Amino acid sequence: MAREQLGICAEANLHGSYLLCNVLDGQEAILRQKLARIPHIMQRLAEHFSEAMLSGLVAVSSHYWDNLYPWQRPVGLQAFPVLPSEHLAVSCTMADLLIQIRSDRLDVNYIALQQIQQLLMANVEVVEQLSGFRYLDGRQLTGFIDAPQNPRGLKRRQAALVTADESAVFAGGSYVHFYRASLDLKHWQQLTLPQQEDIHGYVKLDAKPLSMARLQPNSHLLCCQLNEQQQLPILQQNMPFAHNSNQGCLHLSFSQQPEHFVRQWCYRLGLNEGRYYDSLLDYYRIDLAAAYFAPSVSFLEAAAHGSLNATASDVY
Where do the Dyp-type peroxidase C-terminal domain residues begin and end (predicted)? Predict the structure, then answer.
């Protein structure tokens, strides 16, 4: 049975650290071996600092996957969708690797980052090093509770992890979308509480959905749903960030089926018939975005040892 990486279905933490890296030329063979060691570094540190609830993952971008694992590709792995919309501009990044570390101790994050960077320093260059934090009781910087309808319990695995029925090779892996959304906090804070709640579709205090009589069709809540009762099966691990005059949210989303991401963006941008543009996007600017696949620990180990065999269903 495939073993997923610790960070995919982990519960929320206090601190998040993110590395976006580009791989130097000709490093693929040694990198396959080193990437397989990262989950073991995370597991060892998680056991040593058990109270920190450390977890993490490594994911490979859609544009770099074929360089690293040319014999097999996740069927639905595609670039971050840049959809035609006058409402939102998205700047995509070409970072080859995403490494995420989360825990309840910032010093443990630092130790994990240090060990991983020492492992990879001869093979990659760091494009971005980002940090996120838990704000109040799990809220965004808008003051609203983040992702109140996120899958819980076993539904987290069902939403995020590829099953063996879908792909024997990539079972236990997950499609990942990562983006940084900068918040126009000045203009957001000028809104009244009822205006903010109408935009979100939730009560600010406890994240209960607004009554149907009050719920606006362009609210964030309705624009992210399949229908009035059902959310798209996407697991979110978002964390606020803030430095200098820039602040917002680092969005990390997981799904077993990457088309859910495209579907969600089509809904939010009002590109489907009968759908409205998500008014919350008026207060955000996405200046960094990319699509990745986080393979299982089993896949990483097999690829490091050269023991993977391609199957017709997994080769593109």
Answer: 138-297
